[in-house]
# Entry
Amino acid sequence: MTELPPGYLLRRPRDEDAQALVDLMVAIDVEEQGAPDTEIEDLKADWAQPRFDKGRDALTITAPDRSFAGYGWVWDRVPHVDLQADLHVHPKQRGIGLEQVLLDRIEERGREHLPDAPAGETVTVAVFAMAGTPLAEILERRDYERTRTFYRMTIDLAGGYPEPGVPAGIEIRPFRPGVDDREVHATIEDTFAHHFRFHAESHEDWVTRRMGHPSFDPSLWLVAWDGDTMVGAILPYQFGDLSWVRELGVRDAYRGRGIGKALLVASFRMFEERGSKRVSLGVDAGNTTGATALYEKSGMKVEQRHELFQRPVSPAVEKESGLRPAAKQLERKE
# Structure
């Protein structure tokens, strides 16, 4: 395992560290994107995900002056099988091996899921990195495979967008909390059932991640109905200054009729009425439903490209490295 430089320490994050860790991530946002893109609500939402335990699934690296130099986490989005991870190293602390230290511990945590993984399943760690960044290069050198490209697409509302144009027989209505919850969940599940990395999620977990998010605002959600049948839904959020469409789905039997575009444009109008200047979303560039083309026709443009890197974990790596349990490693460092 990669050793930390002298004076640097590993420890688990604490609740009182939240703002300082956000400041670390904002420094990276400014370096790579030119503007802040992280809010404290984002961090709190990560820590509140089902099964996530920051005492096991998150790590920080402090510099000799005790400021945060690095932060990483890993979460089993599909229990014990598909692990999503993220790591952040302050721009002024790059080039001294901190990324490798965090990846060592993330992968070590991944191996701890092996005994509980279903028979025949491969336990895989996945990390997103913006194309062309130092992290992307580090992941490639570490034999992570670049498996997918995702776009961040944005529209400047001042430039205009199409009229809503709701298809005949379809009605777009506000989401009704406590009434539409399960049907919206079912609609989103049906819509994404054949998408890359899809996994069925219990309603309780979905509610925790979507409706339990600190930025959840039910008045932003819209649903499309054909009579008494829900046929589509859009789930926007206001993350600080960022207006974001988190999910947009239309059931298979209703695609190609303009329902997705009607929901998206209705969301643009709603955000604009609330004073937003821009709206963004993320989309799988390999999506086979034509989502990227739909967004382009609605006035959105690709703003960023993010690559998904994946690597399986295996017991063989653990034996070769002589790794010890994560808790013992931390005890030694703390």
